[in-house]
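lol forgot to send this yesterday, sorry. struct tokens for the thing we talked abt
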């Protein structure tokens, strides 16, 4: 905690109440979602702010944040992709992590439900590209195969069916 002290000749010193200064980072890249924003810092740490009702900020809470907040227990990311209420990150090693709403299978895992910190997503090969949609996620793996999972209204997942939810990467 910091305290400010004002001093002027002939007047009594005045002290502020104790306050904290938020962590400062220098953004290298910024990503916008439906109601949240995230940035990658120069050291590849992820910082997010905005709506957090499903844990999409990845800080372990569901508290909305007006200031950038460091993701909890997160690896360093090469890129991020933000959906409406879920977020995903791609590491330099080609691993995918997601957090936030999983009510439509956005993580490709069961059980569904909110996840407040980054969770590893299993895919059959190293991921080279990642995209989060409104309530679905897609990845391209080394070799060029594409996998999509989550909400599938109208056939969003490209699997040849229009089942409402695709619960695993296909």
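and heres what i got for the seq, position by position
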């Amino acid at each position: 905690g910091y305290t400010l002290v004002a001093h002027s000749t002939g007047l009594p010193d005045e002290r502020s109440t104790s306050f904290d200064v938020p962590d400062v980072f220098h953004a290298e890249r910024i990503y916008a979602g439906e109601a949240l924003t995230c940035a990658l810092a120069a050291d590849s740490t992820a910082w997010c702010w905005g709506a957090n009702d499903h844990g999409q900020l990845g800080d372990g809470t569901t508290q909305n944040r007006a200031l950038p907040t460091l993701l909890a227990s997160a690896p360093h990311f090469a890129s991020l992709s933000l959906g409406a209420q879920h977020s995903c990150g791609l590491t330099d090693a080609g691993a995918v992590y997601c957090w936030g709403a999983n009510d439509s299978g956005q993580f490709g895992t069961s059980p569904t439900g909110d996840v407040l910190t980054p969770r590893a997503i299993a895919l059959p090969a190293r991921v080279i590209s990642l995209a989060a949609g409104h309530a679905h996620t897609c990845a391209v793996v080394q070799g060029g195969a594409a996998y999509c999972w989550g909400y599938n209204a109208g056939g969003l997942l490209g699997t040849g069916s229009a089942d409402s939810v695709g619960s695993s990467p296909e």
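The chain has a mean pLDDT of 89. anyway ping me if u want another try
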